[in-house]
Specification:
Elements lengths: L16 H12 L16 H31 L7 E8 L4 E9 L5 E10 L8 E2 L6 E2 L2 H15 L9 E8 L9 E8 L5 E5 L2 E5 L6 E6 L5 E4 L1 E2 L2 E2 L3 E4 L8 H10 L3 E4 L4 E6 L2 E7 L10 E2 L2
Parallel strand pairs: 14-15
Antiparallel strand pairs: 1-2, 2-3, 3-4, 3-5, 6-7, 7-9, 8-11, 9-10, 10-18, 12-13, 15-16, 16-17
Length: about 300
């Protein structure tokens, strides 16, 4: 399992015109698709953005806590080869518990360590539960792990980048008609690379055995370097043929990599995204056709 290439998200960068042009060009390629559907309207922007921000915030909490908890465990002398994954459950405010998975003496995968971290406190907030006794997965943890495995086995997930991390959220926490929302997000161990996409979302049944809906963040892979021809990248600009408004994917990427994004939505609205904050700018006259990102087959 690969974690991100640095021990904390404190990353800085600057942007060249080359990077901005490439970002727009990549998203405009291969826009043709067989059908269109309704997408969120700009009139519902406040409600839709609030929903996306909530998802992105929990994505960020899950990813950062699993990352920091893994680093804390390894720094404590834990055998990395025995780790089989992690599950994160939200706590109060910005806290959460990372349940680290490993093989129990009976041969089954169970929880072998528990670490509490707080996103507001950074990596140093992580506290290993010294009294924790390895145990089998609870029913909810088993369903959560099954949902992750179901999403990763789905043929809609096409592995096109070097590494991926998995995020699993309770769907009910976000008003989504499913059991779990599983994200498979492109990652990297190269500190100079920012994987803007292609990320995946799967809405999975409560027992974790069936994918109900699926979508990708982009039509193709989008990776950018923090430096371009000797210049540091200040921001990335891209168009979307899927989203009228910023989705959780853009908000999550900007937050995780500390990188401002400029997004042109498929109906022509321009958005400035800085972490979990999205501000609508002026619209462009030329509008892209909006395509349905969801796939239920």
């Amino acid at each position: 399992m690969m974690r991100h290439g640095q021990s904390s998200p404190a990353r800085t960068s600057r942007c060249s015109p080359i990077g901005l042009a490439l970002a727009a060009a990549v998203s405009l390629v291969a826009c043709k698709r067989d059908h269109t559907v309704s997408t969120p309207s700009l009139e519902r922007s406040e409600e839709s953005l609030e929903h996306s921000v909530g998802l992105a915030r929990d994505m960020l909490r899950y990813d950062l806590i699993s990352w920091w908890a893994t680093d804390a465990l390894f720094a404590d002398g834990f055998d990395a080869s025995s780790l089989r994954g992690w599950l994160v459950t939200p706590g109060q405010e910005t806290a959460g518990d990372a349940r680290m998975l490993g093989v129990l003496p009976a041969g089954d995968v169970g929880v072998v360590a528990s670490i509490r971290c707080d996103v507001a406190g950074g990596p140093s907030s992580c506290v290993i539960d010294r009294g924790f006794e390895p145990r089998p997965l609870s029913d909810e943890e088993r369903a959560m792990q099954r949902a992750i495995e179901t999403a990763r086995a789905d043929k809609f997930f096409v592995r096109a980048q070097s590494s991926y991390n998995t995020i699993a959220l309770r769907a009910a926490d976000h008003g989504v008609d499913a059991g779990w929302i599983v994200y498979i997000v492109a990652s990297t161990t190269d500190p100079d690379v920012i994987p803007v996409g292609r990320h995946f979302r799967f809405d999975v049944s409560k027992n974790g055995s069936r994918v109900l809906r699926r979508r990708a963040s982009h039509r193709s892979v989008m990776e950018f370097r923090r430096s371009e021809a000797g210049l540091k990248v200040a921001g990335i600009a891209a168009t979307s043929v899927f989203d009228v408004l910023p989705s959780e994917f853009q908000l999550y990427v900007s937050s995780l990599w500390r990188m401002p994004l400029t997004m042109v939505g498929c109906k022509g609205s321009i958005w400035s995204i800085d972490g979990l904050k999205a501000t609508q700018l002026e619209s462009v006259a030329a509008k892209l056709r909006c395509f349905d990102p969801w796939n239920e087959k």
